[in-house]
Amino acid sequence: xxxxxxxxxxxxxxxxxxxxxxxxxxxxxxxxxxxxxxxxxxxxxxxxxxxxxxxxxxxxxxxxxxxxxxxxxxxxxxxxxxxxxxxxxxxxxxxxxxxxxxxxxxxxxxxxxxxxxxxxxxxxxxxxxxxxxxxxxxxxxxxxxxxxxxxxxxxxxxxxxxxxxxxxxxxxxxxxxxxxxxxxxxxxxxxxxxxxx
Length: 197
Known about the structure:
Layout: E1 2-6, H1 13-26, E2 31-34, H2 39-48, H3 54-67, H4 70-88, E3 89-91, E4 99-103, E5 106-111, H5 119-123, E6 127-130, E7 137-141, E8 144-148, E9 156-161, E10 169-175, E11 180-186
Parallel strand pairs: 1-2, 2-3, 5-6, 6-8
Antiparallel strand pairs: 1-9, 4-5, 7-8, 9-10, 10-11
């Protein structure tokens, strides 16, 4: 599974569009978590919402490809792309709610505001991803990690990938041009062994 993270874009819908395209099309993520409920999200959803479901749009693509004009084809492909974006987009839950994902044997805790993280949350997670910092951040504390992609205006997104070339789960910081800034392995739960005398 590949899980992408985008920080708040505030009112920059074009930046949100580019970041979603980067993660969904170029990095082929399964889901994108967006850490805001802002004007950019509302405009993004409004631009890509359609009354047609995915199957109907795909049927229209086939129909228009055979008989439509280039403008008709572009319009149908735009709607198909928008449906694909919205299908993969998730909004991080409002505080104090949390979301959890499993990648391989790693538990990922997703929160919009790091102030809502409890000690128990940290103990039970391998990585905590939050969205209320303005800068890209990564901190490792023993086997646990904390990550924030920062505000989108900072120019970075995050990718948690369990299909990495190195094996295991890795976290990548990617700039919005698609360049990988750094890659960090995420430790698994590991077996706990006790030896009795």
